[in-house]
Amino acid sequence: MTSTDSSKPLHVQQVIKTYQQGTSKVHALDRVSLTVEPGEFVAIMGASGSGKSTLLHAMAGLIDVDGGTVTIAGQDLSQLADGPLTRFRRDNLGIVFQAYNLIPSLTAEANIRLPAPKKMGGELDAKVDRLLQRLGMIERRHHKPGALSGGEQQRIAIARALICDPAILLADEPTGSLDSVTGTQICKLLRRLVDEERRSIVMVTHEPHVAMWADRICVLKDGTNLAEIQTDGTRDPQTVARQYQEALGGEVLV
Ligand SMILES: Nc1ncnc2c1ncn2[C@@H]1O[C@H](COP(=O)(O)OP(=O)(O)OP(=O)(O)O)[C@@H](O)[C@H]1O
């Protein structure tokens, strides 16, 4: 697997997203800012409803924002029409969801190939092989998602997200459907993608023992930046949990 272009940071500047819920307005994001450097792993934490998924979706260009900018590799996403945005997303971002979102009727291998443009030709076969090897899934390549465990399905979803060699991976609760042992395996895999390939990762999570794999934790509250926590690399969930609680002023989390 090739390493990625290291000149592709992600900047979120003063982003606003407001939803109408009945007669009231919900400020899902209220001037949130975040910069992610090449080869940096950032976790986004916050209580339920604090705006984590909305922020990730804004970074992915999956929702329009009402103010501020999301810039990836120097490109302001709001300046792209639908078609160019889809292509830009494919070439620059990999996205991983809690529910894996694999196509049940396709084999693991076919799911990985799905986002690849036709022009990749024979290069694609080699790339799929490398990804299956890298993620320990070579023996499972012909299985359909229904015959794979949750952890295996998430590995395939990560391979699919990497097929176009994006510099940035966005992950929304990637371990949320997994037991803690399998979840840790996925966290270690994500960490390796940062350490060995210098990819940038932004991951939404509720869990201190998942967030501890990041370099930095961005804590949101009510759609605003509340705090930044630098993890110290000791991977101690208790320390991260305590720092997180302190950031929230001792509030009990949902
Ligand atoms: N499509 C939508 N329509 C209306 N309101 C929305 C929509 N999406 C999100 N919201 C609201 O925006 C706020 C932030 O939601 P968001 O899903 O980003 O929070 P979250 O931190 O990811 O929560 P959770 O941890 O529960 O997934 C919430 O009040 C939510 O109800």
Automatic annotation (TrEMBL):
PANTHER family cross-referenced by the UniProt entry: ABC TRANSPORTER ABCH.1, IMPORT ATP-BINDING PROTEIN
Entries under InterPro entries matching the protein: AAA+_ATPase (IPR003593), ABC_transporter-like_ATP-bd (IPR003439), ABC_transporter-like_CS (IPR017871), ABC_transpr_LolD-like (IPR015854), MacB-like_ATP-bd (IPR017911), P-loop_NTPase (IPR027417)
Name assigned to this protein: ABC transporter ATP-binding protein
Claim: Transport is one of the keywords in the record: yes
Name of one Pfam family that matches: ABC_tran
Superkingdom in the source lineage: Bacteria
Keywords: ATP-binding, Nucleotide-binding, Transport
CDD domains according to UniProt: ABC_MJ0796_LolCDE_FtsE
PROSITE patterns the record matches: ABC_TRANSPORTER_1, ABC_TRANSPORTER_2
Residues covered by the ABC transporter domain: 10-247
GO molecular function, one term: ATP binding
Keyword ATP-binding belongs to the record: yes
